[in-house]
Amino acid sequence: MALVPCRSTASEQCSLKKRFGRGSAVGRASATQRKLTGANALLAAALSLLPGAMAEIIDGKAAAQEVREQVRRDVLEFEARYGMPPGLATVLVGSDPASATYVRSKRRACAEVGIASFPHELNERTTMDELLALIAELNHRSDVHGILVQLPLPQHLSAHQVIAALDPRKDVDGLHPVNQGKLVQGLPGLRPCTPLGVLLLIERTGVPLTGAHAVVVGRSTLVGKPTAFLLLERDATVTLCHSRTRDLARVVQSAEILVVATGRPGLVRGDWVRMGAVVIDVGINRLPDGTLVGDVDFASASSRAGFITPVPGGVGPMTVAMLLRNTVQAATWQMEGEP
């Protein structure tokens, strides 16, 4: 009889939030639930060592849909309590097609869960003073609880200056220096969306993070660095790699948890992956023929990993879902005067 990995329910694998008024990053399962999911994860990892075994796919679309459904319920509760919905302002400068697509997807997502959307589309010739004036206006609006400035900005505008001008309480991308500092210090605050999604996907596998060796490949302020700090918060032992890391393959081979975010298609080959590892591929790259691929060679890596995210359909859907959750979190903290 063929062995089949046990699967935990979503409620066993993770708790998406605490109730309003308390605030929450990614929730933690109870001690009993962690034991159950840990046993299932160990079984899945053991099965991956069998000849011909394939990794269990981590379904980012399903995870993101669960987050959105919870956010929809949270929005209804927020509106019932405060008489208005959480509000998210999006700022798009210029006409970059990819940026315009991303912003439209975020607005649609807001509409689906009941978050009020306040779009601002500025032309390519917008000056720094004009952009900062808009940010100042949004900072002071009581119906705007989150502000998202779509990056990259046109070359004549300073992203660092714009991010620093945001009210940290409304920085739903988690990029303001105050929020980055809170992350480093382990204090409550808004965290970057993609790293939050990465952590939730890892937690869904049930693989214990405490004491595990996690390797993050990529040191960007958007993904790599904050992911490393979030893993440290979960008591993982973290190695952060980058373009100058010596013998990258050897370091990657030691990873029980592997997160790759470099923007280099197929950088991590299958023979680099430790047997039974959890592999989270953040990269999304379009090849000349239009095919979307990640930073990990999926075909070869999936024959060694215990769990792996696909591209597309892995981390990507989580980013927008966590943005929605951050918006509700920011709104709740603002109304209750914390953190």
How would you characterize the overall build of this protein?
The chain is of the alpha/beta class. It has a domain at 84-177 and 319-332: 3-Layer(aba) Sandwich (Rossmann fold). It contains twelve helices and eleven strands. The chain has helices at 10-13, 31-48, 60-82, 97-113, 128-140, 159-165, 177-185, 193-205, 224-233, 248-253, 298-301, 316-336, and strands spanning 56-57, 87-93, 116-122, 146-149, 213-217, 237-241, 257-260, 278-281, 285-286, 292-293, 307-308. A six-stranded parallel sheet has the order 1-11-8-7-5-6. Strands 3-2-4 form a three-stranded parallel sheet, sandwiched between helices. Strands 9-10 form a two-stranded antiparallel ribbon. The chain is globular and about 55 Å long. The N and C termini lie far apart (53 Å). Residues 1-36 have low confidence and may be disordered.
* Number of β-strand runs: 11
Strand content: 5-15%
Give the strand order of the largest sheet, numbering strands 1, 2, ... along the chain: 1-11-8-7-5-6
| Helix amount | 40-55%
What does the radius of gyration come to? 20 Å
CATH class of the domain at 84-177 and 319-332: Alpha Beta
The CATH topology name of the domain at 84-177 and 319-332 reads Rossmann fold
CATH superfamily of the domain at 84-177 and 319-332: Leucine Dehydrogenase, chain A, domain 1
Mean pLDDT: 88
Which consecutive residue ranges, at least 5 long each, have pLDDT under 50?
Answer: 1-36
Secondary-structure content class: alpha/beta
> Judging from the principal axes of the Cα atoms, what is the shape?
globular
Largest sheet: 6 strands, parallel
Distance between the termini: 53 Å
Number of distinct helices = 12
N-to-C SSE string, H for helix and E for strand: HHEHEHEHEHHHEHEHEEEEHEH
